[in-house]
Design a protein that fits this description.
alpha+beta; Conserved Hypothetical Protein Mth637, Chain: A; five-stranded mixed β-sheet; 1 helix; 5 strands
Length: 90
């Protein structure tokens, strides 16, 4: 399943904070340097969708805040597990 994600780096904590249109808004505590924000986004998406990190691939937007991720093993319409948000502080 492909999902659109608006990634905002340098946040106080890593969390999904809402939606913008059809896209998820994901704030990550990592800076947008050397791909660290992308890796933080992959780790967080894997956790909230309960899939291994290897199942989450960045398809487009490597150097943009607007990104598309492919998450293997998810059915269309899957939603993040909100209970994962409380455990994640960056």
């Amino acid at each position: 399943m492909r999902i659109g994600v608006r990634v905002i780096p340098n946040a106080p904590r890593t969390a999904i904070t809402g939606k913008r249109g059809d896209d998820i808004v994901l704030r990550v505590s990592a800076p947008a340097v050397d791909g660290r924000a992308n890796q933080a986004a992959i780790r967080h998406l894997a956790e909230v969708f309960k899939v291994p990190r290897s199942a989450v691939q960045l398809v487009s937007g490597e150097r943009s805040r607007q990104k598309t991720f492919e998450i293997a093993g998810l059915e269309a319409g899957a939603t993040p597990d909100p209970s994962s948000e409380d455990r994640n502080n960056g």
